[in-house]
Design a protein that fits this description.
alpha/beta; 13 strands; 274 residues; two-stranded antiparallel ribbon
Length: 274
C-alpha cells in the first residue's frame, strides 16, 4: 500500500475508534484509559454497595475498595481529609492555609481545612507528603482513575489563594496520577476547565452541571463527563435533552443522587439514571 494510502487508512481507523468510544492512552500519559463515553455510572461516596448490573463506572471514596467495574477513586485533594485534619494542623501547620494565625476551614465542611497551595515549594511538598500518597493508594487498590475534589477551594480562601494556584497544583497532581497509571478527573470549577484540560486532565466529574448550566462547558472540553445531579427537576430536563439528538451532549453520563449520597438500600437514598 502506498505511504499516503496507509497514512489515510490509519487516520480513518483512529477517527473510527474515537467515534465508538475506544479510549486508550492519551499522548503524554502512562497507559491511562478512560471509560466508554456515556457509560452508566454510580456515585457511591456515602457508602459502597453492589452496583446495578448495567453500571459500567463506579466512583468511591479512597477508603473504599474498587467495585470491579471502571473505578474512580475520590480524593479530597485541595482540603484536608476530615479524619486527618487534626494531625495535619498540629504536625504540619505550614501546609495548611492560615488567616490571622488560624487555619482556614471550609464554611460548609468545618472539619476540613484548606491546603496552602500558594507557592511552588508548598505545592511540591503537598504532592509529596499529603495528596500524592492518597493517589498512590488509589492506584495500589486497583482504581483506574482519580477524582480530586475541591479544585475550587480558592473561592473559600478569603482571597489568600487564586485560580492560578489551583491550576498549578492540579498540573502536579495530574503528573503524579499519570505516573501511577491513573486517569485524572477534574471536579467542578467550570471556569477553569480549559486550563485544567490543558494541564493534562482526562475527564471530568461534575455536580449539578445542569442546574448551573455548565454541562456544555465540560462536554466541549472532555470526551467523558460524569455528572451528578441533586435536583430532580434539573435532572429531568437534562435527561430530556439527552434523549434529543439535536441537543444531546456527547460523552455525558448523568445520575440523580440524594445530597448525602447514601448507599442504595439506605432510607432516603435516591439513585436514578437516564
Amino acid at each position: 500500500m502506498p505511504a499516503r494510502r496507509a497514512a489515510a487508512a490509519l487516520l480513518a481507523l483512529l477517527a473510527l475508534l474515537a467515534a465508538v468510544g475506544c479510549t486508550g492512552p492519551r499522548p503524554g500519559t502512562d497507559a491511562v484509559t478512560l471509560p466508554r463515553p456515556g457509560a452508566p455510572f454510580e456515585y457511591q461516596l456515602g457508602g459502597a454497595g453492589p452496583p446495578a448490573p448495567a453500571t459500567e463506572v463506579v466512583v468511591r471514596d479512597v477508603t473504599a475498595p474498587p467495585a470491579g467495574r471502571y473505578d474512580v477513586c475520590y480524593v479530597n485533594g485541595f482540603q484536608s481529609q476530615p479524619a486527618e485534619t487534626g494531625r495535619l494542623v498540629s504536625e504540619h501547620p505550614e501546609l495548611v492555609l492560615h488567616d490571622g494565625g488560624e487555619p482556614v476551614a471550609d464554611p460548609d465542611w468545618p472539619d476540613e481545612v484548606l491546603l496552602d497551595v500558594s507557592t511552588p515549594a508548598l505545592r511540591t511538598r503537598l504532592v509529596r507528603e499529603v495528596v500524592g500518597p492518597l493517589l498512590d493508594r488509589c492506584a495500589s487498590a486497583g482504581f483506574e482513575a482519580v477524582e480530586v475534589d475541591n479544585l475550587d477551594s480558592w473561592i473559600r480562601s478569603r482571597n489568600l489563594l487564586d485560580a492560578d494556584d489551583a491550576v498549578a497544583f492540579t498540573a502536579l497532581l495530574v503528573e503524579r496520577a499519570h505516573a501511577r497509571g491513573l486517569a485524572y478527573a477534574q471536579k467542578n470549577a467550570a471556569e477553569v476547565t480549559d486550563r485544567v484540560r490543558a494541564a493534562g486532565a482526562d475527564l471530568v466529574v461534575a455536580e449539578d452541571c445542569a442546574a448551573f448550566d455548565e454541562c456544555g462547558t465540560y462536554a466541549g472540553a472532555y470526551p467523558v463527563v460524569l455528572d451528578v445531579e441533586y435536583d430532580a427537576d434539573a435532572f429531568a430536563l437534562l435527561c430530556a435533552a439527552q434523549d434529543d439528538r439535536r441537543r444531546a451532549l456527547p460523552g455525558l453520563s448523568v445520575v440523580l443522587r440524594d445530597r448525602d449520597v447514601l448507599p442504595r438500600d439506605a432510607p432516603g437514598a435516591v439513585h436514578a439514571t437516564c
